[in-house]
Amino acid sequence: MSQFQWQVRIYYEDTDHGGVVYYANYLRFMERARTEWLRSLGIEQDLLIRENDILFAVHNVNIDFLAPARFNDLLNISVDIIKRGHASLTVNQVVTRDEDANTALCTAQVRVACLKASTFSACPIPELILKEIPNVV
Hints:
Layout: E1 3-9, H1 23-40, H2 45-52, E2 54-65, E3 74-84, E4 88-97, E5 100-116, E6 121-122, H3 127-130
Antiparallel strand pairs: 1-3, 2-5, 3-4, 4-5, 5-6
């Protein structure tokens, strides 16, 4: 699976005074999509911490806000792995409106680091995770 899609409905609480999605909420939606992507691969993050002392933390985000989403929109958030490093993963994420999947509302490149949960120090991504995540050329 090279690209994962996850949907979220926009509620009133997600919008700002102008009636559009508050910019920081796009990061929340992207985080949830990455969590659901890992879950779809059989990787549960709470078990990673408890059983393997491993967690993923966002190291870097490059984000572009292109068009507004509004109350009651149904959004698609994609997760597409673009780089698999020794101790990090980089994904491209695109947010589109369900009825117009060709128009990006927001795009981001997100790099997450693999960390030892007990020390918050970088560590190699364990093989049990690498075998589930597609290798990117």
